[in-house]
Specification:
With 146 residues, the chain is mainly α. It is built from six helices and no strands. The chain has one domain (6-142): Up-down Bundle (Four Helix Bundle (Hemerythrin (Met), subunit A)). Bound molecules: heme C. InterPro entries: Cyt_c/b562, Cyt_c_II, Cyt_c_prime.
């Protein structure tokens, strides 16, 4: 598909890897924030599939996915507030050094989710780019992929 953007490739990659990323995590706080990220990734994958025409654009499902992302995005400060660690955690210590910036990036994800336009596939394809960009913007500084 020639129109496949980097953002879309990125988001579907995240959704695909989410299922097994947190096997063996013992710390409950780390588990909770990983579960939240997995829910975000799954919802983003649903939207990305619709944007790419892999699945039909379904208004109710798209709205549900958007709501999952904005709800979980709003929970990010509470989920990460405690500097919990686990050998499996991919959270960078910079999160707690640059807390204001980190939470601003969560807010950016929420805004991008709320700005999604489901009018048609073209509109979704355009607006999902900002959502994908919001994931990368935060992961770049605050996630150390293992
Ligand atoms: C505010 C910062 C931030 C934003 C925005 C963000 N993430 Fe994350 N994400 C993280 C951090 C930090 C981790 C690592 C958490 C850990 O391992 O303790 C993570 C982990 C993940 C994981 C791995 C979860 C697991 O089970 O190990 C996935 C998948 C993921 N993010 C997907 C996404 C997607 C998709 C988006 C955008 C729609 C997104 N993230 C937006 C910070 C963010």
């Amino acid at each position: 598909m020639p129109r496949l953007t980097h953002a879309l490739a990125f988001t579907s990659f995240c959704a695909a890897t989410a299922a097994f990323a947190h096997n063996g995590v013992k710390d409950p706080d780390v588990m909770a924030r990983m579960n939240a990220m997995s829910a975000i990734a799954k919802a983003t994958g649903t939207l990305s599939d619709m944007a790419r025409g892999k699945t039909p654009l379904h208004q109710a499902k798209a709205r549900m996915a958007r709501d999952t992302i904005s709800l979980q995005a709003a929970k990010v400060p509470a989920l990460f507030e405690n500097q919990a660690t686990d050998p499996k955690s991919e959270a960078a210590p910079a999160i707690w050094d640059d807390w204001t910036d980190f939470t601003a990036k969560a807010d950016q994800m929420k805004k991008a989710a709320l700005a999604l336009d489901f009018t048609d596939r073209a509109a979704l394809r355009v607006t999902i780019r900002d959502l994908g960009a919001s994931c990368s913007a935060c992961h770049k500084d605050y996630r150390i992929e293992k």
